[in-house]
Write a structure and sequence with these properties.
This protein has 492 residues and is an alpha+beta fold. Helices cover 37% and strands 20% of the residues.
Length: 492
């Protein structure tokens, strides 16, 4: 047997998968560490992590998955990397870290992005960046320049989290088109790095890493990378993508009209199109998909809900229940609409789909004589599901043609309450796939670009589990949703 290995570098853990390159099936999947990795928040809107922490857990996890599955490292033929999007990692001329990574849910650069949008104007950033500058990697780098000039003066390389992991494995510094687009650093109209945005921010364009392509060799594991991970020297890195485009690939979302739905720490809708225009640049974002090329422009329109599964996890920690299934069972004994209890799940930073407002997570209409734990659990699931429906409305207003929706079986969609609420509100079935981001990254490591159609057919036959259909009677869901929207609009 021969294998590929896939890494999913999240903010809570590192997931690692081994895939058999012949059967395409997952052999093993592990999570490292067992407890969630810490996020440092020195101020209310900040969120940072030490990139060396990601690397250390990746090394421990790689050695563990190889040992536990008695895999000869020489049988590993390729590496794929998925990573938390929009983060900023900076290195000096000696390729040493200069500071913690400013990660995806950090909101400190919101004002910088808003000022850039006002100064540049939608007539320019719209067709070129396909996004408002926003609170993304470029704006975070500008924040460092403004607030940490001593650190900025030492920067020789900026990169995204996945670029850092590839660097640690290979010793080489590079990035991808889809990575730059996540940082709002790719010019879709000119089909090159948006150096003009860097010029606006006063950032040296020479700090941008060289580009490599997906589904081709992006560098090979070095002696140092091999000694720390247990991988063999010379194994190629063949794929790299942010977690949401990668989740879309894992769910077989590669063609126009296909939508990936993810209900993890954050909630995401990721719709693929070949569009060349949009009227929505603030509440949703448009990124180069993993199969984007300058010649074939496949765009992933992403709507992100920061406050999603993180809230349900918080409720579990605050309650006496250690099992999500028990919480779901208790929620199932509560009627649709949670007897009037309304939950807004937005407690994990600024929400782009709400124009970067931060209403916070909150429960409304709490009746201390009526509402029990089951009401809290159901209201939380409904609040997140309502947020998905709200996001779908935004995407449809932007003229996206949605033909199929797929979701993974390892997140909120395992909850019948959540999945039935979503399907009943959007009036469309959701296909459930048995896969994860790490498995998708591992599979991507053996794909040739011209073999994506074969990949798509194989994955459909292997991973498709079931299909969630809307309830026949949807009126109670719509009534509860309208009450939720009224509460949301009152709060924002």
């Amino acid at each position: 047997m021969k294998y590929t290995i896939g890494y999913d570098i999240g903010s809570s853990s590192i997931k690692i998968a081994l895939v058999d390159i012949y059967s395409k099936k997952n052999i093993a999947l592990i999570i490292e560490p067992q407890k969630e990795m810490p996020i440092l928040a020195q101020k209310a809107t900040w969120a940072e992590q030490d990139p060396e922490m990601w690397w250390n857990h990746l090394c421990v996890g790689t050695q563990r998955i190889l040992k536990e599955n008695s895999v000869n490292p020489k049988k590993i033929t390729g590496v794929g990397i998925s990573y938390q999007m929009h983060g900023l990692v900076v290195l000096d001329k000696n390729k040493e870290l200069l500071r913690n990574s400013i990660i995806w849910c950090d909101s400190r650069a919101v004002g910088i992005g808003e000022k850039a949008a006002d100064d540049i104007g939608e007539n320019r950033f719209g067709p070129h960046l396909f996004n408002a500058p926003g609170n993304f990697t470029a704006s975070k780098l500008k924040w460092v320049k403004e607030n940490e000039p001593e650190i900025y003066s030492k920067i020789a390389h900026y990169m995204l989290p996945g670029d850092f992991i590839a660097f640690k494995l290979t010793g080489e510094i590079s990035t991808t088109i889809n990575g730059l687009s996540e940082g709002i650093l790719w010019d879709f109209k000119e089909k090159k790095v948006a150096d003009w945005l860097l010029d606006y921010y006063g950032i040296d364009a020479g700090l941008t890493p060289p580009l490599v392509s997906n589904f081709k060799d992006q560098g090979r594991v070095s002696i140092s990378g091999a000694s720390q991970t247990g991988l063999p020297v010379g194994v190629p890195i063949r794929y790299r993508a942010g977690d949401q485009p990668n989740n879309a690939l894992a769910l077989n979302i590669l063609k126009p009209g296909e939508v990936a739905a993810t209900g993890g720490t954050s909630g995401v809708l990721f719709a693929v199109s070949d569009r060349d225009s949009s009227k929505e640049f603030y509440r949703v974002n448009h990124f180069a998909h993993v199969n984007y090329t300058p010649e074939k422009s496949l765009i992933g329109t992403l709507l992100c809900i920061n406050g999603a599964g993180v809230q349900y996890s918080w409720l579990r920690r605050m309650s006496s229940y250690n099992d999500f299934n028990l919480m779901n069972d208790l929620a199932g004994k509560t009627p649709i609409g949670s007897d009037g209890l309304i939950n807004l799940p937005f407690g994990n930073g600024a929400e782009r789909m709400l124009y970067n407002k931060t209403p916070g997570a909150q429960f409304s209409n709490l009746n201390l004589n009526k509402h029990q734990q089951g009401h809290l659990f159901r209201a939380a699931l409904e609040g997140i599901a309502f947020s998905f429906a709200y996001g779908m409305e935004i995407m449809q207003e932007d003229s996206l043609d949605i033909k199929v929706i797929r979701a993974g079986n390892d997140n909120l969609f395992r909850s019948e309450i959540f999945s039935k609420t979503v399907t009943s509100l959007i009036g469309q079935n959701i296909e459930i796939y048995n896969t994860t981001g790490a498995i998708g990254a591992a599979r991507a490591a053996y794909i040739e670009f011209d073999g994506l159609d074969d990949y798509s057919q194989n994955i459909s036959s292997i991973d498709r589990l079931s299909e969630v259909e809307p309830q026949e009677e949807t009126e109670p869901y719509h009534l509860a949703y309208q009450k939720w929207k009224t509460e949301l609009e009152r709060k924002i």
